[in-house]
């Protein structure tokens, strides 16, 4: 079970001003701990939604790596990112939604019609979840596995290409 950070640590990270031996507190936490802090910081439906989505992603791919990207002073906890041989998806939170963006979503089959945002692009696709929305958990895990398969097939092809050169 991931370690949860205390309310004090969340306040410090939110502040982004406290330092320990020259490092800011949030730099001493692992990506998983930062995601824990992001979820703990949101005490409403968004935190519960992000927590559930995280569990579904880990269930679909037990080897998934958690990262935090795009950290800045206005967002010191950054954006949760789930990766396996490349980005599978990101989990952004806004006032009115949790946005799950699949990096290569345009290349994925979506027979259940989960993608409902960023549909016009040639690369990404997203799922916007608003308060009260329910997600088809089996269809979501299938989508995560399809993204994983796409990533690993490309990684495998790239490795084969390097050996053949």
Provide a short characterization of the protein structure:
With 165 residues, the chain is α+β, with helices and mostly antiparallel strands. 39% of the residues lie in helices and 19% in strands. It has a single domain, classed as Aspartate Aminotransferase, domain 1, CATH 3.90.1150.
SSE order and pairing:
Elements: H1 7-15, E1 19-20, E2 23-24, H2 31-41, H3 45-60, E3 65-69, E4 79-83, E5 87-93, E6 98-102, E7 125-129, H4 137-164
Antiparallel strand pairs: 1-2, 3-4, 4-5, 5-6, 6-7
Helix pairs in contact: 2-3, 3-4
Please explain how this structure is put together:
- With 165 residues, this protein is an alpha+beta fold.
- The chain has one domain (45-164): Aspartate Aminotransferase, domain 1.
- It has four helices and seven strands.
- It has a five-stranded antiparallel beta sheet with strand order 3-4-5-6-7.
- α2 runs antiparallel to α3 and α3 crosses α4 (137-164).
- The longest helix has 28 residues, at 137-164.
- Please summarize the sheet with the most strands: 5 strands, antiparallel
Shape: globular
The main sheet orders its strands as 3-4-5-6-7
The overall average pLDDT, rounded, is 84
| Tally of separate domains | 1
Q: List the helices and strands in order.
A: HEEHHEEEEEH
Total beta strand runs: 7
The helicity comes to: 25-40%
CATH topology: Aspartate Aminotransferase, domain 1
What would CATH call the class?
A: Alpha Beta
Count of DSSP-assigned helices:
4
DSSP strand content:
15-25%
Can you tag this structure with a few keywords?
about 160 residues; alpha+beta; Aspartate Aminotransferase, domain 1; five-stranded antiparallel sheet; two-stranded antiparallel sheet; disordered N terminus
């Amino acid at each position: 079970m991931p370690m949860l950070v205390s309310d004090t640590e969340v306040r410090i990270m939110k502040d982004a001003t406290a330092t320990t031996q020259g490092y800011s507190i949030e730099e001493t936490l692992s990506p998983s701990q930062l995601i824990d802090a992001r979820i703990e910081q949101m005490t409403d439906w968004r935190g519960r939604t992000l927590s559930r989505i995280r569990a579904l992603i880990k269930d679909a791919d037990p080897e998934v790596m958690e990262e935090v990207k795009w950290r800045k002073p206005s967002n010191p906890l950054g954006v949760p990112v789930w990766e396996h041989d490349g980005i599978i998806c990101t989990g952004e939170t806004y006032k009115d939604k949790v946005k799950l963006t699949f990096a290569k979503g345009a290349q994925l089959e979506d027979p259940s019609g989960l993608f409902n945002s960023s549909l016009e692009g040639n690369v990404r696709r997203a799922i916007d979840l608003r308060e009260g929305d329910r997600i088809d958990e089996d269809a979501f895990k299938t989508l995560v596995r399809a993204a994983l398969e796409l990533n690993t097939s490309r990684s495998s092809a790239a490795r084969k290409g390097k050996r053949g050169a």
